[in-house]
Every structure is written in C-alpha cells, then in structure tokens.
Amino acid sequence: MNTKMIELARTMTRCEQAQGLSVLRHGQLVRDRYVDLVGHLRDGKPLSMDWKLPEWCSDPLAVEGLPDDATMARYQVFHDCGKPLVLTVDAEGRRHFPGHAVASRDAWLAAGGSHEVADLIAMDMDAHLLKHEGVPEFARRPQARALLLTALAEIHANAEMFGGRSSVSFLSKYKNLDRRGKAVLAEIRRIDAERENA
Fold first, then answer.
1. Which residues make beta-bridge pairs with 96?
2. Cα 184 from Cα 173, distance rounded (Å)
3. For residue 21, what are the β-bridge partners?
4. Which residues neighbour 125 within 8 Å (Cβ) at sequence distance 6 or greater?
5. How far does CA 143 lie from the centroid of its chain?
6. CB 190: neighbour CB atoms within 10 A?
7. Strand ranges for 4-139 from DSSP E
8. What angle do CA 16, 18, 20 make, to 5 degrees?
9. What is the pLDDT of residues 92-112, one digit of tens each?
C-alpha cells in the first residue's frame, strides 16, 4: 500500500460512520460479510454469520462474472473513503455525508487506486436506490452482481447500527434488494438469451 493509501486509511479510522464505528471499520465489516456470503454461494462453505438471504441468492447466476476477490475487498473496505471529506453534522447532532460516493471515488483515485475499484465505489449506492424502471440499465452493467451482493453484505453489516434485522430500516432495505435482485437476474438472463439467439 502506498503512502497516500495508508494516509487515506488513517483518515477513515479517525472519522466515525456512527457512534463507535469508524468509516474504515465499517468497510472491513462489509468485506467480511461479503467473504462469508460469497464463500457460501460460490464455494459451498457453511455461513459463519447470521443472514437473511433472498431467494435470488441461490441462483448460480448471482455469482457469475464477479470481479476477483482482491478487487472486491479493496472496493468494500474503501467504498466510503470520501466520507471524512463531506461530513456535516446537523442541529440534532446527526451525521450526514452528502455526495459521498463521488467523493469516495475521487479520494480513491487521488490515492493512486485503480479505475476498476473507483467505478465500483462510485456505483456503491446504486443497488440500494434502484427502482423498477432502472433495472434494465443496471442489469447491463458488468458490475451489477458485485453491487447487489455487496449491498446485501452492507445492510447486514449495518443491521445492528439501525436496530437489528427486525428493524423497519433493515426490513425495508432488505425488501428492496429482494425485489430488485430478482428482477436484475431475470433481466440478465433475458439479455443473455437474446444474445444467444441473435
């Protein structure tokens, strides 16, 4: 890791994502969740963490064409690296990170990070915010499955921060990923069939 990347990691350590949880630690928790999930889905390893998995996860298509594990780890650990740069605190003391995905992409690139990881970082919120009408475009991205699985790892990593897996926050995020993941994989399958028949 170069000097700029080490300093970026230190800056992430000094910034709290939530009380008692640094931005860097949050990224590490997401990576650990993803490793557990993909080890199970792709390699058949037993899950070591507690999960609520949508049905689409059992589709072999969900793990096809993922970036290599090292690329995914760099993306997940550093996906919020720009949050210290955009942090604001409102009158009630709540922390906000407006535009953090773009700021994170730019901070990663400024530290000498790869463009492949930068693209993933810039799109990190897209699976969480995906609406029905955006599914066809999202499904055409080579990063679609990596983003969906990371989003699933993120909501599980964040679950305790938002009141656990029975909280309204977790359940609404989970429900959205359940619906969109199913739709994205169906669209990928449709696109693949269209190419085969062309």
1. 88
2. 16
3. 18
4. 101
5. 11
6. 12
7. 16-18, 21-22, 88-89, 95-96
8. 70
9. 888 889 899 999 999 999 999
